[in-house]
Amino acid sequence: MTNSSKQSAPLFQLRDQRLQYQGRTVLDNLCLSIASGERVALIGESGSGKSTLLKALREQRPDQVAWCPQQPGLVPILSAFHNMYMGALDRYSLAYNLVNLVKPLPGARALVEPIAKQLGLEQQLFSSTDKLSGGQQQRTSIGRALIQQRAIFLGDEPVANVDEYQGDALLQLICQQHQTVVLALHDITQALSICTRIIGLQDGAIVLDAPSDQLQASDLAGLYSAS
Fold this sequence. Notes:
CATH superfamily of the largest domain: P-loop containing nucleotide triphosphate hydrolases
Strand content: 15-25%
Distance between the termini: 52 Å
Largest sheet: 6 strands, mixed
């Protein structure tokens, strides 16, 4: 294999895949490839398979992906600092991590505090996450993913609990700090403005796959049932 062919190999690839959730087929005969450097939005109604597809992508490169789930999955009795620091646990020894649990060390603070500031969490950094608002908890979850410092970010509705202005800023931050980004999003406007490629899911299949600069919001409306 030549160097050029290695460089052009897809980062993620699914060929005629059947993806299931709790024993039920969600996506069938799925063919998809995602290249390094892409910013991809997965669009579709709840239950269309966005989360299932993200899970399949995570399984292909588990050690290269920073993951931000729809439910923050924080440890409620621990502070925002400690929940964010969890993204870096595998970099340090058990002894170092245990000391940080009791009293954060300067090195750990230097790692977490700049990201907390970017996320607007500096005032809540040492509050337990059960005392935080839904939006603050979601930003803490994003911080935990950012601290992993990985090239790929996968997010399942990562800004669903914040307002549009904050959401846009957070998505921009995510894109700035990761080479490749794949996001399940419910906000069509955000998807078109933040991502370079839109993948639409409906009825167990990919029904749309196009560059965002070739699409308008009206092109995506058909992915959602009329209410």
